[in-house]
Amino acid sequence: MTNDQSQRTVFTHCLICEQLCGLEVAVEDGVVKSIRPDKQNPYTWRDFCVKGQRSHEVASSPWRVRMPMKRVDGRFVEASYEEAVSDIAARLQAIIARHGKDAVAGYLGNPMGFSSGAAAWHFSFLGALGTNQKYGVQSIDSNAKHVACDAMFGLETLALIPDIDATDYALLIGTNPAVSKFNWGGKVPNGWRRLKDRVHAGAELVVVDPRRTESAASASRHVAPLPETDWAFLLGLIKVILDEGLSRLPSEIAVTGRDALYAICEATSLNRLAALCDIPVHEITAVARGFAAAPRGFAFAGTGPALGRHGVLTHWLTLALNVLTDRLDRPGGRFAPNWPYNMPMTKGHSEPKRRSRVRGIETVVGQYSLSELADEILTPGQGQVRALIVGGGNPVSTGAGGDHLARALGQLELLVSVDLFQRESHREAHWLIPAVHFLEREEVHVALHSMNDRPFIQSTRQVIEPPPGLRPEWTFYHDLAAAMGLELFGGHISHPDQMAAGMLAGSGKVTLEQVRASEHGLIYGERTMGHFLEYFGKQDRSVDVCPERLAGGLKAALTGDVKTSLPLPGHYRLISRRRNGMMNSSLTETSGSVGHDETDDAVEINRIDAEQAGIAEGDWVEVRSDTSTIRACATLSGDIRRSTVVLAQGWGSPLLDPATSAVAYLRGNERNKLVSDADLDPLSAAPRLNGTLVAISRIG
What we know:
CATH class of the largest domain: Alpha Beta
CATH topology of the largest domain: Rossmann fold
Structural class: alpha/beta
Mean pLDDT: 91
Helix content: 25-40%
Low-confidence stretches: 591-596
Strand order of the largest sheet: 5-4-18-16-15-6-7
Largest sheet: 7 strands, mixed
Number of strands: 29
Oligomer: single chain
């Protein structure tokens, strides 16, 4: 950092997504003038993107919430923190006295999840209240991975990172790292370029996706199954490998369930599996033999299948494929990191499983599915949710059944938003509590750095001052707990730095002081493997490649009618795609500054399908599902398989002026309205954001 008072350069890292890219920020007179990649950062900067480059525009937005704001006669007026804490505490205590602890719920979204202090204090406050009503954004797009890891390994939050630099065969299912990076449940900085280097050196890259994505365009082979049928393709691979004796199990740990999985494969035919996913038998066979024969390889499933009806089956069979070919904790395979603080392997246990009051759905990582929240608010009885604290989230615009949830939120006795902005989910809020932007705070997010593919850690730096009087979110939860006579963290932790220092001290390898002293981040070791196998060996645990509950779901899927996978004429399966300029429903306030994004209101349709439907390039069309109708502009393409259409993620969330609650900014589509909050993966309760049946017709 340069020390000139008027001009200075600060080195920090981005906190928009898991990639945590190194940033070089030029500041003049307290104002950010530019953000560039920190090329002295030895680990993360090469994934620098426009979202990080424009992140300061979020902090300086004219629509930002800068003080606590209370709703009075339908409008929001500024108030003090003391008034906010006093009023919210009194309301919560009254609600709990009348209806019990579970009448208060909390929801955590991505933006606050990337603030270690805010996220930790949010959950600690809910824990101190004693409520079981906890909801999170992971139930939209990552429950499938957690359920599969829990069933197979007993570790819900296990990260198994691909060793890209040493692989000979990469099988990617429903992921597009050319756009979204290798950062879902583990981080591989510059991963796409590193993988392309391996391809140039002779490695095979197979991409499984209904759309010829940017990643598929560079693949050795592109497999385009019907949406929601990746599981059938994967079971076909496993059947070939087991039938032809190509499997090999790890020698260091016990593996159970192989015979049960083989029996399921024996009970079906390769022809039937090929028909289910609409991929020829010879292609399934070729991929299976190639993957099994590769000296080093990995299979990796991403967010795409996790958004579908059979997401758990796909993630389970992807993991099983790695186990059956001895690709866990092997060079070129997938491995579990152990630095600086490996959460799943030191945690030892997770929260007890509970079932929701209305639908009886089991929790995942201690949280209920967002798709249940509306019913929990609207259904009378003991435990009915009557108060909700939304931490950095916009569930009305990100989850399924947004209109249903919006109506429910309007029935709450207390709705508190803790966020940078007033969003669609906060229209009926009683209080808006401001949040601190990551450029305005200094912290070490140990948990996020524990999922790096090599031991690296970095502290964010305070680049600019927050608005006058604005406090970090964690202090709001701290003060609210004190006002209610509650103790957080058992009284052992009073500041996020104390939490980070304790976590790092437990590693025995690096201290908070060392991290803070390393301006560009700290690499403190080499990439190593064997931690997963060592942990399982010490615990005398086994890996189950055919968990009974998941096997039951697979058998049920196999009994389905092949014909139901193919939509009727004029109907299509809807899937999602990533966008470079936007992060799902957040950062809409930034995307307007980065130029036109042609995907924001476009629906991508196969050219032949469009011709048969009388739809031309640029036509405005209605996209209809059983739940809603939205408008979109048709884009014709040869990259999407027939009977499938694509709408971008980033679901048209309006940004509201907190003074008036009028829409200040709106861009994109509201594709989540097309998805029912009752149409869920039966194993994970994730909504069907990929796979919903829609009809499309030209307007006018």
